[in-house]
Each structure stands twice: as C-alpha cells, then as structure tokens.
Amino acid sequence: MDTNNTRRLADLININDQELAAIAVSGIELDSREVTAGDVFLACAGFASDGRDYIDQAIAAGAVAVLAEQDERWPNHSMRHGIPIVVVEKLSQKISAIAGQFYKHPSQQLPVLAVTGTNGKTSCTQLLQQLLNALDKSCGVIGTLGAGADGELAAGINTTPSAVAIQKLLANWLADNISTAAMEVSSHGLEQGRVQALQFELALFTNLSRDHLDYHGSMQAYAEAKARLFRQPGLKHAVINIDDNFSSSLLSIINDDVEVTRFSIDAAQDKNKRIDVWVENISYHPDGVSAELHSPWGEFELHSPLLGSFNLSNVVAVVSSLGVLGYPVATVIEKLQVLGTIAGRMEKVTSATDINVVVDYAHTPDALEKALVAMRQHSEGDVWCVFGCGGDRDQGKRSLMGETVQRYADHVVVTSDNPRHESASDIINQILGGVNCPSLVEEDRAKAIDFTIANAKAGDCVLLAGKGHEEYQQVGDLRVPFSDIKQARLALAKRAGVSQ
Length: 500
Known about the structure:
Layout: E1 7-8, H1 9-12, H2 18-21, E2 24-25, E3 27-29, E4 39-43, H3 55-60, E5 65-69, E6 78-80, E7 83-88, H4 95-102, E8 112-116, H5 121-134, E9 139-143, E10 146-148, H6 163-175, E11 180-184, H7 187-191, E12 202-205, H8 213-216, H9 219-227, E13 237-241, H10 247-253, E14 259-264, E15 277-285, E16 288-295, E17 298-304, H11 309-324, H12 329-335, E18 347-348, E19 356-360, H13 365-377, E20 383-387, H14 397-408, E21 411-414, H15 424-432, E22 440-441, H16 445-455, E23 461-465, E24 472-475, E25 478-481, H17 484-495
C-alpha cells in the first residue's frame, strides 16, 4: 500500500456505479502475493496462469476491489466476500493505461529511451546509462540485467517488466529527480502490451534475426511485434540501424512527425541509402576498436574498448541517440574511453594466463556468429567455442547454431545450457544435426569449460556462449547455481597452477 498515492477507482477505469467509483485505491497489483490493504488486484487471464484463480487470496490480503478479465467465465460484475469484482474487457491490454493513470503517467515528464532488437538491447541501454552518468546526468535502466538508477540493479524475471512495475519504477525515478530512463523493450513486452501507455522520447532499433519463434510462431509475427514500438503515440525520435534488412520495413511505417536518424557501420554496402551517421577506416585491435565517425554534428576519431563489429554498431547507435537528444557528441566520443564492462556481453575473464577467455550471452545463430567473428577480429590464435541451447525454446535454431559454430570456430565444444524441462542430451543431439566436423560433446557445462581452458594453446581465445551474466542453470523447475565467469576463473587458475 502507498498511502501517498491514493486514487479513486474511477481514476483508473470508466465506471458508472458511483459507489464503486468512489472506492479509495492506494495501490495496484498483478500478483495476489503482493497485495496489501487498500490495493486493487488486477486479475488477468495470463499466459502461464490465470490471475482470476487467485482472487480469494487477494481479498484475504486486503484488496478493496478486483478488476477481472471479462470472458465467458467472468461475464458480469459480482461481489465476493463483500468485495466488488469489476469485469473489464481485454483487461490485459489495458494494464499499462491503468497503471499509467494510477502513477500519473510519469513517461510524459521523464524522457524514456527505448531500445529494441534481437541483439544489442542490453549493451545499448547499459552504454546509454554509463555515458549519461559520465556526462553528469542520472539515468535509470530497465532490462535483462535488472532495473536501477544508482549502479545497483535489482534483478527481474523478464527483460521488459510488467506494465505495473514499469510505471511504478518510472514514477519513483521521476520523484527522485532522475533525468532519463533507458529501457529494453522486448517483443514479448510489445506483444503483451506492457509498454502500451508509455510515451517514448526515442526508440532505437538494433537488428532483427531469428529468436522467440517458440512464442511468436513466425519471423513475420516477431517482426511485427518489434515494429509496434515505432508506431507508439508520442514517439519523437527514431534511430535505425540501416545495415539490417528489416530497417526498410520499419522506415516505411514510422509516422512523418517522428525525427528519423539512420546509422551504419557498413556505409559502403549501399551508396543509394540515406545515412546520417556512419563510420569508416575501422581498425580492430586487442584493446578494442577505432574508426572515423561521420555525423551531422561533425567528424570524430572514435575509440572504444568494446570488442567486435556488433559492439561498434552498438556504440554508433548510442552516440547517434545522444546526438539526436542534443548532447555534445565530441564529449560523448571522449567519454567512450571510460566505458566499463557490460556483464556477460563480450566480457573478458581477467587473468594472467596465456589465453583469452570471453563470456557472452549469445544464444541465437546471429548473435553467436557476431560473437565468433569478434573473437577472430581481436585474436590471432585458434578460436574455441563452448555453447549449448536452451530447453523449452525454439528448436529450429539448434542445428543452425551448430552450423554457425562449425563455420566460425576452430574447436567446437557442445554442452548444456538451460535444459529446463527437456533432456540436455536430446538438445545436444539436435545441435549436432548442424555439425559435421569433429567436436567434443560434454553435457556437464563445468567440465566442458574446464576441458576447453586446459587444452587451449597459448595465444588461443575461448568463447563461452549462451549464458552470459546468468548465475544459474535452469534444470526442470530448479535454478542450480552456476556461473560461466566463476567456472572460467577456476579453470584459468588451475591452468596457471594457482591453488584455489
């Protein structure tokens, strides 16, 4: 309950009954376990469970009213234990607006920068936060790594939190005088309406490749979900990666009143395209990448400590976004030198050994290809790749990921990822359907990492792909503690002969 944020039920929804309209509401919750006295419980027909099954628990916890998804099961308003249950048609799609009403639409006052795309969302939002902080501007961030505005991220379940959680976070940040929010916007979040009532200052598109087909069913449906962000009412700026084939489709649906900025790291690809920000004379080296940046704000020498061409694209995306918003690009370019590591995103595992080990979250064929290409760009030795595929997810990409690793790595090590409710060995066999070169199969991920680091030759590089920042393996319903980074450090210490 939030005693400083009391509303009437009529402030949240249109309701004709004056007695119901006058009910005082001090909070809104989607989870019956979080309900406290004075709250309204939003009982949606969810994807994994039905909130209407938990109405009794919410009432017992002190709910003063329940808004329930209307269907044949719940066709009319009713009372239960003296508490009104108000049925709302398509409630799930209205949660963002209801939460916006309760929290007084904070995104209309706090600039929110949205990042969408298959890969690069986390990196771009984290880079936006780091660079804005370096410019002495406070920035909250919401995404895969969690949410926070002070350097400490509170872990979340989803890349894009619930519609209620988002509005509450933004309202709190507005009250705390945070200047900007940067958030990852996933296809699930767009499809499920979690950001439907938000007003975005800027939307950034990174790329589109195969992912989440277990949910969306087809690439067309997946692409259409991503495109929704760029039709969001109130959007002011769109920053588009025109190196991606989907960019032309996006550009065709953006409203004329939205200022569009196009960026590229491969401007030579198509001289006929309009490009606003681009780089050339790119040089990859062990300490990062350098390039010449051309933009409406001038020409600059760009130096980034981040590895790979895809990270160069992320950096150009973020520089373009900040330039569009009026920040001094020369200063932004200068601040690139102090960028810190992004957890589980081409993260170097520091050690004094003779090989390089990098942990990356790459879990799609496209992301895996880009990560392996980056390893080639920054190393002269052999490339080893330890990877698997997640269970209960798109099975069609498994052999494709096997093909990708075979094409770009010198040594293929296939292991488990998050098997969830599938057999790890069955997943591995599907991966091997795309592999026709000699490879090591070791289902135990720790043993696979240990073997690879022990057997790599001096000057080689090792990519541990798929899990990135995660500190667990999902096996069935259990989250078993496990970290690629921690396991790699143990293996590196053993290689160096250091006791742990």
